[in-house]
Design a protein that fits this description.
It is an enzyme of class 2 (transferase). By secondary structure, the chain is an alpha/beta fold. It has two domains: 241 residues, Malonyl-Coenzyme A Acyl Carrier Protein, domain 2 (3-Layer(aba) Sandwich); 68 residues, 2-Layer Sandwich (Alpha-Beta Plaits). Helices cover 50% and strands 14% of the residues. The protein has a five-stranded parallel sheet, with helices on both faces. α8 packs across α9.
Length: 328
């Protein structure tokens, strides 16, 4: 499908594609589909050549898979491999795309804004800078459940005021589900306060406190690489994490990608935007089904469908083609 055809086809649909972020990786991802679709291994080979190490070997063996600098290019490549299979099978072009954190880069590649080679190099660097910005064990993240956004923000302010260090809302994932990030002791203080206020708190097994002010040094180092990378306007609108809307131009797009490192992911607003725009079907293009499960809770979403196994891919393809009137 040409760029123009993709753009025209996307405008007529009620489907959106979402791309997962770090945490969705799993050993052996896409192995089953790779046996059927040679394009998956081809996509991994293309990305591996660009970044200089074997992404498929990492994905299948698990060796280094949870190191941020490797996790990010592996996940991005897996998402693009699935996107290419979707198009190869005649899947519809979505009206909008969005990605959660790292997934925003996958969305930009799928939409034609970034080349796969440039994107894997960017996210490999992004992972390295994020990892080195905060010493191991200093930062932390936790999911706060059962409290509204305003209450979580209030508890973060309370915990920050009580001592040195900071903690902030990092991901607004859904109503009653906010992830906080910051200095480990401040995150633990918010967890305790959340429980005192009737909420739940779950420490996340991450090595990097993403989307908080501790990542500002990483963003400053990352900005020049973004400036030097060729980026075009997406052929399908990509809702960016910062602001939950599509960028007006490439300058704004680059600025949002830099700010994304230390500002919160506005996923709740992103999903609300998709609903307001009449989206009824959401396809998660990447390993796992974390984003699909979030979307299933929304009142106007008919189906939220993952793609990462043969049966899931077939179900999503048939469901969306029928819904869009492409097959009876």
């Amino acid at each position: 499908m040409s760029a123009k055809q993709l753009e025209q086809a996307a405008q007529a649909t009620k489907t959106a594609f979402v791309f997962p972020g770090q945490g969705s990786q799993k050993v052996g991802m896409l192995a089953e589909l790779a046996e059927q679709f040679s394009g998956i291994r081809d996509t991994f080979a293309e990305a591996s050549a660009a970044v200089g190490f074997d992404l498929w070997q990492i994905a299948q063996s698990g060796e280094g898979l949870n190191q941020t600098e490797f996790t990010q290019p592996v996940l991005l490549t897996a998402s693009i491999a699935l996107w290419r299979v979707w198009l190869e099978l005649g899947g519809v072009a979505p009206k909008y795309m969005a990605g959660h954190s790292l997934g925003e880069y996958s969305a930009l590649v799928a939409s034609g804004a970034l080349s796969l080679g440039d994107a894997v190099k960017l996210v490999n660097l992004r992972g390295k800078l994020m990892q080195t910005a905060v010493p191991q064990g200093v930062g932390a993240m936790a999911a706060i459940l059962g409290l509204d956004d305003a209450k979580v923000i209030e508890l973060c302010a309370q915990a920050t005021a009580a001592s040195e260090g900071s903690v902030e809302a990092a991901n607004y994932n859904a109503q009653g589900q906010v992830v906080v990030a910051g200095d480990k002791e401040r995150v633990e203080a918010v967890m305790a306060l959340a429980k005192e206020n009737g909420g739940k708190a779950i420490a996340l097994p991450v090595s990097v406190p993403s989307h908080c002010s501790l990542m500002k040094p990483a963003a400053e180092q990352f900005a020049p690489a973004l400036e030097q990378t060729a980026i075009e306007m997406p052929r399908i609108p990509v809702l960016q994490n910062v602001g939950a809307q599509a960028a007006a131009d490439v300058t704004e797009l680059r600025q949002a990608l830099t700010a994304q490192l230390y500002e919160s992911v506005q996923w709740t607003k992103t999903l609300q935007f998709l609903q307001d725009e009449g989206i009824e079907y959401i396809v998660e293009c990447g390993p796992g089904n974390v984003l699909a499960n979030m979307a299933k809770r929304l009142p106007n979403i008919e189906k939220a469908l993952p793609l990462d196994t043969k049966s899931r891919l077939e179900d999503a393809l048939n469901t969306v083609l029928v819904a869009e009137g492409k097959i009876a």
